[in-house]
Write a structure and sequence with these properties.
Strand content: 5-15%
Helix content: 40-55%
Largest sheet: 4 strands, antiparallel
Oligomer: single chain
Order of helices and strands: HHHHEEHHEHHHHEEHEEEEHHHH
């Protein structure tokens, strides 16, 4: 594989590839009005989109902005559907085949066959190795302060130039990074764009390479802007934290969150929703509080006859999937038994309890 992406922009700018991007973009959204409207004249819309990009007439639409509050307050920006098709095409045709293979193998966010569970497994594996080889090692746990809002588009563009030599692709990348106005000087990239999660990963790949190549840290795992380093001594942790902070400030215009700290391994590692120890994994406290709070809310709605059971069961199954990757048998049993809407008339209770116990036994 060549070091840079060369002479392939127009080769990959075809009706077929853009249609494939459309089918990916519409996944789980087939009944949304903007998708339906786009598909009413699908072939012409795809043809026009390809021609507009080819003739440099493509302009991104206006963002729709809204706020979410889980797990914390975030401002989300959503582009029109046609732009999401373009993002799908760009990521699948250029970023995934050419840039992602250059990442280190212990970064886990937004990558196929990785994710939170693989990340926690790798951290625990490293902890066990360190415990066996070093005894009482130290953990350096860090995250970036307001990461997406702090990414410098100018630096991101310079980083992308290291991967891309195709002039047409670089010009299009500039449009995706800076949007309509290339001279605003604004900092941050929109949370909500499909490209943003990949641009963010590419941005912090600079840190990954520095940690592995310059600092020579063997036990390092990153999930987006959260990362863990396992080190032999407290003094080493102090020095490495200082070097990392200096690097991200000078090279990436970022800073570490105040919660970034170092501590003895016996305290465990809070990472990707779990508290990880060498011998076991537990759910984080806020996850326990959230599910208990949700159960109380669901029970109240059930007693009033207003519970959407299908949607509630989807939420429960999602939580069960998360909890099944740690030592949570007693907690899971307690949570399920407290769900009044899982209990029908008395004559059916024992049968339903047996089903719950069977599920718990399988997931134990």
């Amino acid at each position: 594989m060549s070091k840079k992406i060369r002479n392939c922009f127009y080769e990959k700018l075809t009706f077929k590839k853009m249609m494939e991007a459309h089918y990916r973009a519409r996944k789980h959204k087939v009944y949304r009005e903007e998708v339906i409207q786009f598909e009413l004249n699908l072939e012409n819309n795809i043809t026009n989109l390809v021609n507009n990009i080819r003739n440099k007439k493509y302009v991104m639409g206006n963002y729709r902005t809204f706020v979410i509050y889980e797990p914390k307050e975030r401002v989300i920006k959503s582009l029109p559907y046609v732009d999401r098709i373009v993002h799908q095409w760009y990521v699948e045709e250029f970023i995934k085949p050419y840039i992602i293979p250059k990442f280190i193998n212990t970064t886990y966010a937004c990558l196929e066959d990785r994710g939170t569970h693989k990340a926690t497994e790798k951290v625990q594996q490293y902890m066990r190795i360190c415990k066996r080889n070093c005894g009482d090692f130290w953990v350096l746990k860090c995250d970036i302060r307001k990461f997406f809002y702090s990414i410098d588009p100018v630096i991101l563009y310079e980083i992308m130039q290291k991967y891309i030599q195709d002039k047409a692709l670089m010009s299009f990348t500039k449009l995706l990074i800076f949007g309509k106005n290339h001279t605003t000087g604004e900092v941050g990239i929109p949370i909500g764009n499909y490209t943003s999660q990949f641009f963010a990963n590419i941005y912090l790949n600079e840190l990954d390479q520095y940690v592995k190549r310059e600092l020579k840290i063997k036990y390092y795992v990153r999930y987006m802007d959260d990362f863990v380093l396992l080190l032999k001594t407290k003094q080493e942790a102090i020095e490495i934290k200082k070097k990392i902070n200096e690097f991200i400030q000078t090279k990436l215009h970022l800073s570490l969150n105040d919660k970034s700290r170092y501590y003895p391994q016996k305290m465990g590692v809070n990472f990707c929703g779990y508290r990880i120890f060498t011998t076991h994994r537990l759910l984080r406290t806020n996850s326990k509080k959230k599910i208990k709070s949700n159960v109380k809310k669901w029970n109240k709605l059930y007693l009033k006859g207003k519970l959407d059971l299908e949607k509630t069961m989807q939420s429960i199954n999602s939580w069960l999937g998360h909890s099944s990757h740690c030592n949570s048998y007693k907690l899971t049993k307690k949570v399920l038994n407290s769900c009044e809407f899982l209990m029908g008339p008395k004559i059916e209770r024992q049968m339903e309890q047996n089903l719950i116990n069977d599920f718990l036994t399988q997931s134990q």
